[in-house]
Each structure stands twice: as C-alpha cells, then as structure tokens.
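Progress against Task 2.4 (sequence-to-structure conversion) is shown through the following example record, which the project officer requested during the mid-term review.
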Amino acid sequence: MILTLEALNAEEGDCLLLHHGNKKEPQHILIDGGPRGTYAKTLGPRLKELRKLHGLRDSASLSIELGVLTHTDSDHLDGLVALFDDLRKLKEQKQPLPFRIESLWYNSFDDLVGNREVAKVQSLEKSPARTVRAFAASVQNGRKLRDTAKLLAFPINQDFDTFAMQSASASPCIEFDELSLTVISPTPKELIAIEKAWDKFLKSAAGKKALGGAAMFGDDDSPTNVSSIVVLAEAGDKRLLLTGDARAEEILTGLENAGLLPEHGALEVDVFKIPHHGSSRNSTPLLYQRVHAQHYVIAANGEHRNPDLATLEMLWRARGKGDWTLWTTFPQNAYQSVPNGERCETLRAIQRWIDSHEVKVRYRKPSEGSVRIELGTDPLPQ
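Structure tokens generated for the chain above:
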C-alpha cells in the first residue's frame, strides 16, 4: 500500500499531494495550490513527473482523483487558479489536457454566506486595509476558479448537497478505495456563526472606517480561515490530520463532534499538518495536548512571521523530547539566503530555537521541491 504525504514548496502557502493506492495504480489527491508562482515552480513540474510515473501518452490526462480548495486565501488558491487557467487555454485551443481533476471540493466564502452579498464584497476592494482588500480579491478569485472548473467539466462538491453542509447531521466521510476522508470542519454551527458575524460586519463597514478590519472573527480575523476545510485521512491503521488554516477551536470541536477525540488522553495520528503555517493565532496549548502525532508538518517560509516561536513552544511543552519529527518546507538555515528584514529575522529565530531544543527535524533540501512522509508499506515510485 502506498500512503505518502508530499508537502510542496509553496513559499508562504500550502500545497499538498496525498498519494495512495498501490505500485501499479497510484492515486493522487491535491489539496490547495499555494500562491500563484507555486504552479510554475513546483506544482506544475511535479504533476509532469507524475505523468511520467504513469507512462502516459501525450493525448492522455493524468487523473487527479480529488482536488480540495480548503479556503480562498491567495496563498492556497492562486496556484490552483494558475493550473486551471493553463488547462482552460489548452481546452480553448482544442489541445488534450495534461491533468484532469475528477472531483473538486470547493470551499468559497461567498457561497457559504450567500451570493446575494457578493456585490457588498466588491465594495471592500477599496478598503484602506491591505488584509480586507486581499479578502475581497480572494472572493473574486474563488469565483473565477469555480467558473473555470465548470468550463473544464470538473465536478464540484458532488459528494455533498452543499459544501456548507448546512443539512449535515454528522461529519461526512468519503471513501476512495482503501482511503477515507472525514470532513472535520467546518461544522453547520460554525457556519451559522460566520454568517451572522459577516452580516454584522457588512452593516457596520458600509461607508465607514470599519472597513479596516473584521476582528469579530476571533484571534484569527480572517473569515475565510474560520471556514477552512479540515480533513482526517485514514488508510489501514494510518491517520493524517490536514488542517488548512483552521483555528484550534474549530479543529477540536470538529474532532469531538465526529467522535474522534478521546474523553481522556489524546487523539493519536501519524501526521498533523500544523494549521495556518504555524501562526500562533490558530494554535493553543490544548490543541497539542489533545492531538499527538509522529510527524508534524509546517508549510511556511518566514513570511508574515510564520511559523511563530510561540507555536513551537506550545508543541514542545505538550510533547517534549520524544519520538516525533518536525517537517518543514523551508530548508535548514534558510535565513542565510533571505535578504535582511522581518522574514530573515523570523527564519533566524526559528533556526536558533530548533538548534537549542532536542527536536528531530526534516528540512526540505534546497534542491528538492517538497518533503515527503512515507507511511505506507510501499514507497511512492520515483
């Protein structure tokens, strides 16, 4: 059995490939696409490598069993937009598509709160706050991705009545042969709270300086992050918790609702993708006390001060010296190749912290486009 998580170098973003199946028929799931440059630098070249692995003719498409957009922030979305744009152009030229998404899980904030409010979102594009302008742009790009997916005839959310899961009575679990994906978050209760907060924000922001922020969404003030898709992937006795940019509270609530969080002790998983690039706004000490992993993955590059030292401290206090490994999409001593500034200082501080703690770390090698965690009995063929 193949079960490999590949965290691609997506700079400050997320781009994951989950490989499963067997040597004769490996299957591939794509979760997020990183910022726009990720497609040209790492995602596109990796998908071309997978075409060679399958021995595909020029006229055949590489089948990507499932694509997941956890939420519409640009550092998760825009690489997928670039991929889909590339495929759209080939389709318009009546050329064969090199890649095909067999099913797309699409989580766009505007659809969660209702399309009637899209016009109000557009009014935020002139906000004095960069974060609010970026949010407005993410809503527009999310709609572009959805429209392009429809043009390419990629099925969207066919496993759900609506990805908002407003009518779901339990955490949806979707089977892919030997692999299952359980949707941990968002929950209906959370989505209702998001919509109420969003309506309140729009009313207060219209024509006022309140456009400068959306603090009612909590420690992490991004409404898209609050609605981020979290999935638990399981194959055999292996488990991977893949969290997007969700907050600790939503992750723990979703696990509890799914009956996965023990009343006493911790949930044991093999891989835990630390949420939101290691931002301390999305982590709590309780999260690392209640969820234990053999492998922790941080996708970050020092941008926006991620990962936070506070997050590493939470993890260390919960686990201490032990049989667990930290995997990073940035290389060892990454600060040495970064110009002086906030990002350089963040990476320097992270390296100092790691060097002063007895933590097993697997850095991405500068010459490689990803880090790979092999969990199956068979490695992914090269």
